[in-house]
């Protein structure tokens, strides 16, 4: 043991139940400093209002409140985008924008209702009710695990015991621009409605023009395109599962932590036994070893030769 690097602590390691799903949410676009960001929780007045999940396709969305205080919020733009969300025919029909809608604003009406993202307020003249944008949607996707991917674990300390729990997936959630998509949609709808009114009033008919359609194929992407189309269709067809967001500093949250992150009776747990010996583990983790005296022997053959030599001594 290196005297300059002594062992300062020793812990007994325990594995917790792996039959439940544990997800780690990351917010790459969120600053850690509380003054300009901080966690999405009750202390920052930005506790998520709802969590939505499509378990088969792995889509995750959360809605977080927007700070509408003077100096932080542009009320005129908030009304503009809030009205767009409120008037969107896509959202009224049960559709969604972005990946949640399969990138198809005219998709079937069983993906999601974007309710709760805007609130109404009376304008300065008091003549009508206007809608103001008050929440923002963050979204990400749970990726299917592949062989060779790292396995992440969560650790919890209690005294001299360390409890580790497997992580089902790490999900990065980023802000979505559904309000801009809704504004573009409503703007196009108004333009089309104006053209139709002009034609009904005897305006000039639209000039007919030939359309030249070209289809390009790529041998390298033949398999990827159908797979992507299939995935978008599955995302579009799958219904959302909706969950309540429990703040981290509540009694319910701590009770869940005690149940699934800590084992209250570690002495009852069975002792784990290694399935392979130390040398086999090193062989599995290391590059193939070559004996300079016998370069033709690698891996298993080299190990057997070394074992035979040790037995003869």
From TrEMBL:
Q: Name one Pfam family in it.
A: RPC5
Organism placement in taxonomy: Eukaryota, Fungi, Dikarya, Ascomycota, Pezizomycotina
What InterPro entries is this protein classified in? Answer: RNA_pol_III_Rpc5
Instruction: State the protein's name.
Output: DNA-directed RNA polymerase III subunit rpc5
Gene Ontology biological process = tRNA transcription by RNA polymerase III
Q: Transmembrane segments in this chain: where?
A: none
Q: Which organism is it from?
A: Talaromyces islandicus
**Please, which domain of life does this record's source organism belong to?**
Eukaryota
Q: Which GO terms describe its cellular component?
A: RNA polymerase III complex
